[in-house]
Amino acid sequence: xxxxxxxxxxxxxxxxxxxxxxxxxxxxxxxxxxxxxxxxxxxxxxxxxxxxxxxxxxxxxxxxxxxxxxxxxxxxxxxxxxxxxxxxxxxxxxxxxxxxxxxxxxxxxxxxxxxxxxxxxxxxxxxxxxxxxxxxxxxxxxxxxxxxxxxxxxxxxxxxxxxxxxxxxxxxxxxxxxxxxxxxxxxxxxxxxxxxxxxxxxxxxxxxxxxxxxxxxxxxxxxxxxxxxxxxxxxxxxxxxxxxxxxxxxxxxxxxxxxxxxxxxxxxxxxxxxxxxxxxxxxxxxxxxxxxxxxxxxxxxxxxxxxxxxxxxxxxxxxxxxxxxxxxxxxxxxxxxxxxxxxxxxxxxxxxxxxxxxxxxxxxxxxxxxxxxxxxxxxxxxxxxxxxxxxxxxxxxxxxxxxxxxxxxxxxxxxxxxxxxxxxxxxxxxxxxxxxxxxxxxxxxxxxxxxxxxxxxxxxxxxxxxxxxxxxxxxxxxxxxxxxxxxxxxxxxxxxxxxxxxxxxxxxxxxxxxxxxxxxxxxxxxxxxxxxxxxxxxxxxxxxxxxxxxxxxxxxxxxxxxxxxxxxxxxxxxxxxxxxxxxxxxxxxxxxxxxxxxxxxxxxxxxxxxxxxxxxxxxxxxxxxxxxxxxxxxxxxxxxxxxxxxxxxxxxxxxxxxxxxxxxxxxxxxxxxxxxxxxxxxxxxxxxx
Length: 689
Description:
Elements: H1 3-16, H2 32-39, H3 48-57, H4 71-87, H5 90-95, H6 113-135, H7 138-147, H8 156-294, H9 311-334, H10 339-391, H11 396-410, H12 417-436, H13 438-441, H14 447-465, H15 474-486, E1 491-493, E2 496-498, H16 506-528, H17 533-546, H18 548-561, H19 578-584, E3 589-590, E4 593-594, H20 597-614, H21 632-643, H22 651-671, H23 673-686
Antiparallel strand pairs: 1-2, 3-4
Helix pairs in contact: 2-6, 3-8, 8-9, 8-10, 8-12, 9-10, 12-18, 14-15, 14-16, 15-17, 16-18, 16-20, 17-18, 17-20, 20-22, 21-22, 22-23
Keywords: Coiled coil, Cytoplasm, mRNA transport, Nuclear pore complex, Nucleus, Protein transport, Translocation, Transport
GO cellular component, one term: nuclear pore cytoplasmic filaments
GO molecular function, one term: translation initiation factor binding
């Protein structure tokens, strides 16, 4: 297909299109300003102001060119007006503000916008098509001019007029929208302001209401607090009054109870004092009866009177002693002796005294008879000696030998009779003490009594065990604890409160165990640490001074474990086994084996050292006006009796050395010259033995 043919087909298609059926004016090609106006950007034409003035002031039909204008200006305007009337449809002209005949209806609010835009579109289509035709050449333009009818030219003033209307319409809508937006903004601001004011007022009312409510609650709370405070104050006053009343009543009751307790304590104290006095009386009677009974013993008295039989007196004396011991044991179990018990023991004492008097009378008669016989025999011997002296001359040598023999025969093997009586009395007192607390020592079924026994034994022995070489200021505390226990006061032992009043036999039990513990400390502690003898001795001496019975029991235990402290050398009697005899000598026998000699001497040394320390020391915080209960005179007597007895190998030398090392200085200060005489005797006469 040739390009020319295609070109004509294109033109035919354009002719049949909507734009092709439009009418064009051939003079439009000569008016280049029209096409320039179509191709140029849309701008307001010089007629915009005029169009606006006319549209506002007059109707569309009154728009005519001014007669006073120049011909050059009126011709294009007329052409443009006629062309516009031809292009625009009748329906559009009827609704357009330019063709309206009513002056009062020229306002923009009555413009037909769709018809106006349609006219404007047609106008732009024509201008575009005309511009295209101009580019196709002059041949096509001439063909177009011959085939199409001529349309009147549209003047640029009309375009400007339409453009002015459009811009005016847009400006009005913009202003109207802006005004509406402003009004709406003002309305919104007014609403926001109103809501803000309303909210502020409501917040103020809420704050005021809240403050009022808080104030009311505070007042109510304050009223409740004041009311409760008044009620509490009243209740407190009432309680104070009740407390004062109760306190007054309790004070009266306490005062009455205290007075009653004091009366009871006074009565109990008087009863105890009377009981203690009667008990001391019983003990003194028993002691006297035992001493009198010792005088009846035929083993130590009147051995040179074989014809006198004192067995009847001895049997009766033993019966009386058993009767008195039974009375004391019964009263100890019951508590304190009564006056009847004291009367019975006094009658027994009178009977014992009568028995001794009868025995002494019988002995005196026998002694007198024996004395007469001895005198006669002595006279006969003297006569014979005189005859022999006359016949033989006396030489000094036999005299010296006789003197040496007398000196050698002067030493004793057995202790003096008074010493043995004293020894026996102490052992009897220990046996009686054991019998007095048999109820507490032999109890096996009663757990409470066993518990009391254990507590009392601990309270008596533990303080003594705490005495050591470095005891120092603790000695006074230990002494006070032991003294309080023996005085009947309560003491603390192992976290428990202990008192001898918990059991009627508690005091005797504590006496016995305390004395035994002192001796055990000498046997064990002093034997290992010799300087421990002095702190133990000073406590034992103080307790002995306040409680003499402890001292007697201490001597009984000491004499039993160390018979050389009497001094006493036990003799082997018929029927006594060797093992038992070794125990009597002080040896420890276990499984039929006797302890070694060194260990034995060490134990004996410890007990003698403790005894030597006790006789020279006194409790420094006690009453020093009285005499020592067992002072240096007993030590001097022991030393003298020891030197009057035959020495034993190892034992005598050890005991003399330990005794003199501990208390030799005290004896020297007390006896002075006599002590040095004793030392000379030991060196010259006793050492060779």
